[in-house]
Amino acid sequence: MFAPTSSDLVAEERKGISGFAGSNLDQLLRARGIRHVAVADFVTEVCVESTIRDAFDRGYHCTLLSDCTAAHSNQD
């Protein structure tokens, strides 16, 4: 397990399916002038899509890191 270093940004734990919901992520990014976000996570069809939509609605330019995401499959 990796721990954040003193130079890493650490957002508060989120309370929803978006990385922005219930967290201080937007404030951390805006305070540093960050306008472009790259998104990677698990459950692409829920959390990742929600985070990208939320970021876009807040005025961020978004890049989906497709090699760094995954989705559930109903295949046997």
UniProtKB/TrEMBL annotation:
The keyword Hydrolase applies. CDD domains: cysteine_hydrolases (cd00431). Pfam families: Isochorismatase. InterPro entries: Isochorismatase-like_dom, Isochorismatase-like_hydrls, Isochorismatase-like_sf. It comes from the Bacteria. Keywords: Hydrolase. Residues 2-75 form the Isochorismatase-like domain. Belongs to the isochorismatase family. This is Nicotinamidase-related amidase. The lineage of its organism: Bacteria, Bacillati, Bacillota, Bacilli, Bacillales.
